[in-house]
Write a structure and sequence with these properties.
Blueprint lengths: L11 E4 L2 E4 L3 H21 L3 H25 L13 H15 L9 E2 L4 H26 L4 H24 L5 E2 L12
Helix pairs in contact: 1-2, 1-4, 2-5, 3-5, 4-5
Length: 189
């Protein structure tokens, strides 16, 4: 099989159920999800498997689920096949958020991105995830989507924030608080 097909030379690309312009909102949405998956792979490469084995296992699951998100976003009509991203996948993210959040110290202020290399890379994932979510919101205004993808991306950015803090904590790095704001978060109970 050849990698190049030449079918996109005229500015169109194949999606599930047809062809669209390469700058179509649908392509922008799943393309940003693909970009996020690449950044996630990079972030994972910065994490020591001895310290982060559990986290890396969960993030590998996220990588597969991001492919599912992209697949659902590339689907022109739901009648062509069932959606892959489910509410249970969103629930699973919430379970991980709670688990990793319990490991980290309380926060009361906004956190500046950075600290350990893994944490900094995970903060990049968080912001790219937010951009992917915005692209999906834009797409949903005019085209049919799996709404669970939007929910998944919203929750995933929260997971990236939480595990960025976990990465710092496990590396012995202190999160840097944004000191020019008042306390805006409640302490854990």
């Amino acid at each position: 099989m050849k990698i190049y097909t030449r079918t996109g030379d005229a500015g169109k690309t194949g999606v599930i159920g047809g062809r669209v312009d390469k700058d179509d909102e649908r392509v922008e949405a799943y393309g940003t999800v693909d970009e996020l998956n690449c950044y996630l792979g990079q972030a994972m490469s910065f994490m020591d498997p001895e310290k982060f084995g559990d986290l890396l296992e969960d993030l590998l699951t996220v990588q597969h689920e991001l492919f599912d998100c992209g697949s659902d976003l590339a689907l022109l009509k739901q009648e062509l096949r069932p959606f892959k991203v489910t509410a249970e996948m969103v629930d699973n993210l919430e379970t991980w958020i709670d688990k990793y959040d319990a490991e980290t110290p309380d926060i009361t202020r906004f956190i500046l991105p950075g600290g350990s290399r893994g944490s900094a890379a995970l903060h990049i994932c968080r912001t790219v995830c937010r951009r992917a979510e915005r692209r999906v919101v834009t797409l949903a205004r005019t085209q049919e989507i799996n709404v669970e993808v939007r929910r998944y991306l919203n929750r995933l950015s929260d997971l990236f924030f939480t595990i960025a803090r976990t990465a710092n904590f496990r590396e012995g790095q202190t999160d840097v608080e944004y000191v020019r704001s008042a306390e805006v978060f409640r302490r854990k109970k």
